[in-house]
Design brief:
This protein is α+β, with helices and mostly antiparallel strands. It is built from four helices and five strands, in the order βααββααββ.
Length: 145
């Protein structure tokens, strides 16, 4: 592995266990703390990360075993978070982004994950291929205060 000293980027991998959703939230919060975000910005980031990781666990790996890849980057006051799985992927991204749409209605899920990600972040990009997995790229511009 070639690793140049870069404090503006961190990458980690973790198992698709539900308890690791909390770990991901805290890792992102720690990474952005040097930018001194507001409490609201921090809550927005943590919520979006939570939704993306939960989607990877429940939908990407269907609560089975797999690896979730988390990358965080800072570009000035912009935070970029990527969550990726190598799970089942999606055939229709636009359908999946519709409010209340869920592939797991028997689990009493709200189907609002993508809506929360879009509302709490400034930009959301979803890349997915059936059988190949899903990558979610979220960007948030932090305020100057």
């Amino acid at each position: 592995m070639n690793c140049k000293k870069n404090t503006n980027r961190v990458h980690m991998e973790f198992c698709s266990a539900s308890e690791n959703e909390r770990f991901a939230r805290m890792a992102v919060a720690a990474f952005v703390s040097v930018l001194d975000p507001t409490l609201e910005e921090l809550a927005d980031l943590k919520t979006a990360v939570s939704e993306a990781v939960t989607n990877a666990i429940i939908h990407g790996y269907e609560n089975g075993e797999g690896i979730i890849y988390l990358t965080c980057m800072r570009e000035g006051r912009k935070v970029i978070v990527e969550i990726e799985d190598k799970g089942i992927g999606m055939e229709d991204i636009e359908k999946a982004k519709e409010p209340l749409y869920t592939t797991r209605p028997e689990w009493e899920r709200s189907g609002m994950g993508f809506c929360f990600m879009e509302n709490f972040m400034d930009e959301l990009e979803v890349q997915s291929e059936p059988g190949q997995g899903t990558r979610i790229i979220m960007k948030k511009n932090l305020s100057f205060h």
